[in-house]
Amino acid sequence: MTTTTTDLSSLTGSYTIDPSHTRIGFVARHAMVTKVRGAFNEFEGTATFDAANPAATAVTVRITAKSIDTRNAQRDEHLRGNDFLAMETYPEITFVSTAFTQTGEASFDLTGDLTVKGVTNSVTIPFAYEGAATDPFGNLRVGFEGAVTINRKDYGVTWNAALEAGGVLVSDKITLEFEVSAIKNA
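Structure for YceI family protein, as requested:
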């Protein structure tokens, strides 16, 4: 049974992100001519939402850095190393919300502290509420999608290589993509 409302007010409660139905991904420009897409395969997250007090919304996400996956083993190993994520020293990427602002009936901005490679910066991610449904196991499941562009250098991820024809191998701007399915806790 799908809930057809697009109104966030019916969603009061605590939720757990379902990793098997959620994608936390990214896009980077490669060699100035194409895009490389990737995702993190291991993460966990929780959210608490109170329609009567949306400002009290709390979201926490913990991503295992070594779970980065761009479908190229050699590139993934380079990304896990000290040139990029330095996962031995910084095994987690985290996001902890600090503000929630409803921007429309089915949209909101989620602001929070994003920590990558030990550096924390505030980011605001615009999200769209995609709907709710009761799954075959009787769980209320909600969906959200959002994306934000960050500058990787703001997080100490500065490695690059100059190209002969000009430009660089990896873009500074990285788009983070979130396709979230969360299950309401009993």
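The longest helix spans residues 73-80.
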